[in-house]
Amino acid sequence: MSSNIYLPHLATIIEIEAQTPDTTMLRVTLDDPTLAQSFTYRPGQFAELSIFGVGECPISIASTPTRKGFLEFCVRAVGQVTNALHELDVGSKIGVRGPYGNPFPLSELEGRNLLFIGGGIGLAPLRSLINYVLDNRDHYGEVELIYGARSPQDLAFKDELKLWDEQEGVTVYLTVDRGDERWRGPVGFVPSFLREIAPSPQEKVAFTCGPPIMIKLVMEALEEMGFPPDHMVTTLEMKMKCGVGKCGRCNIGSRYICRDGPVFTLEQLKALPGGLEL
Amino acid sequence: MIKKAHLTQWLDRVAQGYDLFGPVLDGVVQFERVNSSDQLVFDYANSVVPPKNLFLPQTECLFAFRREEGSIILEPRGGLERERVLFGIRPCDARSLLLLDEVFNSDLEDTYYQEKRRGTILIGLACPSPPQRTCFCTSLGIDPLSPEGVDVLLTDLGDRYLVEVTTEKGEELVGLSQELFFPSAEGEKLKGEKGKSLEEVGEKIGSLWEDGYWRELSRRCLGCGVCTYLCPTCHCFDLTDVGSTLSGKRFRCWDSCMFADFTRMAGGVNPRPTGKERVRQRYFDKFSYFPEQYGVLGCVGCGRCSQYCPMGIDIRTIINEVIARGAK
Asked: Is residue A259 assigned to a domain?
């Protein structure tokens, strides 16, 4: 019998790190030692996580394949499975299917400058690529990250944001929708903050992920700044079940987000019926 | 050729070596497992539920799970005990299986579907004339007398059937009762009638994304989903766990793009929030998305959706409307 695409691999949670009040990072290892060695993925792909008895949900892989031996998933508690994932302890067993979906266009990025624009938990899939790029530093140009969240405590990966900013050739810009008494940084929504910073489109590819409305407004702003539609990349989410283009649910036009995405350029989205409505 | 009087004898022979499925009157005509040909009906236009449920059951356990000594045991289900023979599938439904093959075979293979598909030999029955009121396969380029997609096709010629064998597995079935079959005279194959072609619907629908027609149509639609459940090419499914975290099963069940929950994400965002988006999805999928992915229209003209829609929505009216309104 050929391999069963619906049967998850067992995995164990080895570390849990709270990121924000509603978001946590799970670090897992696959139980089968051979598989743990051979399991490969590329930044931008996702996996279906199972809690047996509760269900399954698609979560982007937040770790980079350059750091082996584990997988990281950044999970916001919004539904049944994600809430149940938040209840787990180190040592708990989950199921993992994947990796699924298309990755970021890695080979096309070599030698280019990279601009990342994230909102809230939307930083998770971008983080995979950011760390991948930083682990292959010679192959890429300048890196800029513009990242915002609802409030200072909703900024995820705070320790890493500092580490990234300290690296040469990396600039991190942070903003929040609403500050608090300790926040000294800029206040404002990501798209307007992006317009203020006005990064040059020169030899640059932009990646954005966040709430749908943010993605839409960021894409509009980038286009006005002169980024060509094939240099603007986003990663989308949609209700998914199978993860492999068969259950018929996550399509925009004829493209399934699980199989043909989740990574799309603005140019690709413009060619799909309703592609700009997400 | 086989004499009509001998057909049941052959099928009973088949039932000895295989699990035989065929049209049964069980309230309505359905394809069901039978022990003998006595249970079969021969005078039917088509089944109410298409035979897709023999390959993609309405509810199917994919695996069982149980927690044991700090780990979790997964036990895959599925598989066939014996090879199956499906008698009586119509040419439109045989075509629909070829379309489902594209979905479940492409990219990553779906073993649950494939095991059932590979383990089932198809004996088709060419359609009687005249067709049902709602049939329109000929308008979509399907021949109601075609052996496409089946291993053996029988065509009713009064007191006998013309037998067309197209595969080795078909030969095996005929070989079980070789003595009942006799050669046919020349030119006995009937020619199917061709209907007015509606295939240009695929080229035209793309221009109608913003058209007000979908809103209009959605006002009549109850969102009951019967069109999708009875559609031989609809394949949408849900995956759901039953049991507790200690032990249970994961099932796959038919789902429908007509249901409001179908695309509603955790947190409440729904990219297809109203009937307009859902109705549009269904017809774009059949006539635009499916052909874009697999090179063939996603409708086989069986007419079940039109026949059983409680609101009388007729897919042929929709196709004609699309052709009238759309631009190439």
From this structure: no
On chain A, the residues whose CB falls within 8 A of the CB of B206 are 273
Q: Number of structural domains, chain A?
A: 2
Q: What percent of chain A has pLDDT over 70?
A: 99
Instruction: Choose among A51, A79, A95: nearest Cβ to B266.
Output: A79
| Neighbouring C-alpha atoms within 13 Å toward the C-beta of A66 | 12
Average pLDDT of chain B is 94
pLDDT in tens, B50-94: 999 999 999 999 999 999 988 999 999 988 999 999 999 999 999
Q: Are residues B249 and B285 in the same domain?
A: yes
Residue B238 sits in which domain range? 201-325
Q: Is residue A271 part of a domain?
A: no
Is position B194 within any domain?
no
- ipTM surpassing 0.85: yes
Q: Residues B65, B166: one domain?
A: yes
**What is the model's pLDDT at position B70?**
84
Report yes or no on B191 lying in a domain. no
> Closest Cα partner for A175 from A216, A134, A145, A199?
A145
The DSSP line for A102-131 is ----HHHHTT-EEEEEEEGGGHHHHHHHHH
Q: Are residues B108 and B176 in the same domain?
A: yes
Q: Are residues B211 and B158 in the same domain?
A: no
Does residue A251 sit within a domain? no
For A38, the domain range is 9-100
CB nearest to B264's CB, from A2, A53, A239: A239
What is the distance in angstroms between the Cα of A69 and the nearest Cα belonging to chain B?
A: 20
Phi/psi for B208 (5° steps) reads: -110, 20
| Secondary structure E strands in chain A | 9-20, 23-30, 46-51, 55-60, 71-76, 93-100, 113-119, 143-149, 170-176, 204-209, 232-235, 251-252, 255-256, 263-265
Q: Kindly report, residue by residue over B134-144, the tens digit of the pLDDT.
A: 999 999 999 99
How near does any CA of chain A get to the CA of B242, in Å?
Answer: 6
Q: In this structure, what DSSP letter does residue B294 have?
A: H
- Write down the pLDDT at residue B326: 87
Same domain, A29 and A72: yes
Tens digit of pLDDT for each residue in A39-61? 999 999 999 999 999 999 999 99
CB-CB: which of B72, B265, B289 is closest to A251?
B289
A2 pLDDT above the threshold of 60: no
Asked if the Cβ–Cβ distance from A241 to B108 is below 8 Å, we say no
CB contact under 8 A, A5 and B109: yes
Q: What pLDDT was estimated at residue B196?
A: 83
Chain A residue closest to B71 (CA)? Answer: A93
